[in-house]
Amino acid sequence: MAGVALPVPEAVVARMSTRWCVSAAFALLAAIAPAIYAAAQPPTAPPDSETPATAAPDDAPAVATEASAPLAPAVDYGGDRAAAYRAFREHFAARRFADALPAAQQVVDITEQRFGKDALELATPLINLGTTRYRLADFSGAALQYQRALKIVETREGGFSRGIIQPLLGLGVAYAAAGDYDASARSLRRAVDVSRKLDGLFNPQQLELVEPLVASYVALGQFSDAEREQQYAVRLAEAAYGKNDPRLLPALEHSANWLEKAGQYVSARQAYARALDIARQAGGKDDLRMVTPLRGIARMYRMEYLHGPGQVEQDEPVPSPQGSAAVYSGPTPGSTATTTVLNSAGEDALELALKALDAHPDEAVALRGDTLVDLGDWYMIAGRTREAMREYREAWMALSVPGAAGTAVLGSPAQLIYRPPSSARRNPTVDPEEYAEHFVEVELTVTPEGRAKNVTIVAQDVTEATGKATVASIRRSRYRPRFIDGEPVATTGVRHRQVIYVRS
Questions:
Q1: Which pLDDT does position 53 carry in this prediction?
Q2: Beta strand 435-446 with 452-460: parallel, antiparallel or unpaired?
């Protein structure tokens, strides 16, 4: 059966003294994995051996739910199950999910009429119907179909049959998309247990289950469980493919991504380094598979500069009225930034990534634009504003060409560096319950040069001194400015809310 993938959700181990030699660089650098898991392929089996469609959310379109989406008029296939399935498969493969839905429903109806409402033959059509609803963002409707398929298989084949794995995986995906991570983790945990019981502890098929399970554990804050399963996923991939096979890259990158999210930046670099070395050995110095790792290297250097190498718990950022993206809020309670200078190996990593992209000018157009934004951010944090603006302008051009992702990333200011006042930190040795949360909210203007100006307090419940300290911290922050038509402009009305901890 085809699988369902879930995202879930993004410095060099040793300091390199100068412009590193390529061999040393590739041996040490590593990168951030995508925040999402790769999508499986749409169904391709012939009608007489139907397979479940896939519900990977990384490429699911942002459309309305089934109840509000305009659906194509249903075609009556006259009880021809094979014809209905062929129509479903054609629409689904072409990503016409609204058109695929009526056909998927008819396959279910015809199958039920022919075999009965509890027939095992209904399981795959129900999974396909659930997956189609998932693609239309009808997560509750998808879950109902997966639940029905699960109940049928359990009744007919038992609670430890291979047939329950796909509906459990579908349920895990649907629950997670709806925000019910506890139910998602339970479904996926059960699917993993069944897979290991039937096919062995190290069967590679369970990778599609472990990865979304990790994502749900992270969302629940169950980091020890997430780390255990993520390490297991790497071991699974090693057992299946070998320690230097390029097929190991997704597992390594997911592991690195997890370590990054956990704030373990040094460990993340080590995982990224291994991924990069495998990509370089497999494809040479300009292989596009190295770009994601190289971008991750730079990000790890940047995060260590902002937060230090240890674990960091970030506050929830408050976006500006213009919709700026989530920001790096600087060292948070209990953390100490120990890196006082940006490691230039991060800049080198981005330059190598761009070199690889330039070797493939007609490929990965959007990725080149994103990498240029990364380099611009690096220069802004380093205080090299002129160079940053050069990269942002080039990024705007790259993101504007047909096929690129668009310039939304440059359409609102984004805070790149901010070190909050000492009152924003908790003592990690003190019980968090002993602290009361207060706040300071400020409004500011981000200049075309990325500076914070006209900083004023709009609300607070702290002392005057604490408010002034927060204002001073904001004035020292740096932003990526907003761009219009490729040029930086000022943005007024940007908001920042800082949590302040006061010991009771």
A1: 63
A2: antiparallel
Here the tokens at position 33 are: 């994995």
Provide the pLDDT for residue 425: 79
Q: Helices 223-241 & 249-261, crossing angle to 10 degrees?
A: 160
Structure tokens, 228? 């255990």
**DSSP-derived pairing of the beta strands 487-489 and 435-446:** unpaired
Rounded to whole angstroms, the maximal C-alpha distance in the chain is: 77
Specify the DSSP class assigned to residue 162. G
The angle at the Cα of 316, spanning 310 to 317, to the nearest 5 degrees, equals: 105
DSSP 385-420: HHHHHHHHHHHHHHHHSTTS--SGGGSS-EEEE---
3-state SS, residue 253: helix
Measure the CA–CA gap between 314 and 356, rounded to whole angstroms: 33
- Residues 131, 177 contacting (CB under 8 angstroms): no
Confidence (pLDDT) at 231:
87
What is the DSSP secondary structure assignment for residue 330, as one 8-state letter?
-
Q: Which residues of 369-396 are buried (b: 16+ CB within 10 A; e: fewer)?
A: bbbbbbbbbbbbbbeebebbbebbbbbb
The rounded distance, in Å, linking the Cα atoms of 376 and 371 is: 9
As beta bridge partners, residue 503 has 435
Q: What is the pLDDT of residue 427?
A: 74
* Surface-to-core class of residue 213, CB atoms within 10 Å of its CB (0-12 exposed, 13-18 middle, 19+ buried): buried
pLDDT of residue 9: 26
Q: Residue by residue, what is the 3-state secondary structure of 194-237? A: HHHHHHCCCCHHHHHHHHHHHHHHHHHCCHHHHHHHHHHHHHHH
Look at residue 7 in the predicted model and tell me its pLDDT: 29
- Dihedral sign computed on CA atoms, order 221, 225, 230, 231: positive
Give CA separation, 441 vs 314, 327, 415, 460, in Å. Answer: 17, 15, 15, 6
Q: Which amino acid is at 266?
A: V
DSSP for 90-151, written as a single string: HHHHTT-HHHHHHHHHHHHHHHHHHH-TT-GGGHHHHHHHHHHHHHTT-HHHHHHHHHHHHH
Helix 249-261 crosses helix 207-220 at what angle (to 10 degrees)? 10
Low-confidence ranges of the chain (pLDDT < 50): 1-49, 55-70, 312-338
Q: In what order do the strands lie in the sheet with 452-460?
A: 452-460, 435-446, 491-503
CB 289 within 8 A of CB 359: no
**Would you state the pLDDT for residue 52?**
63
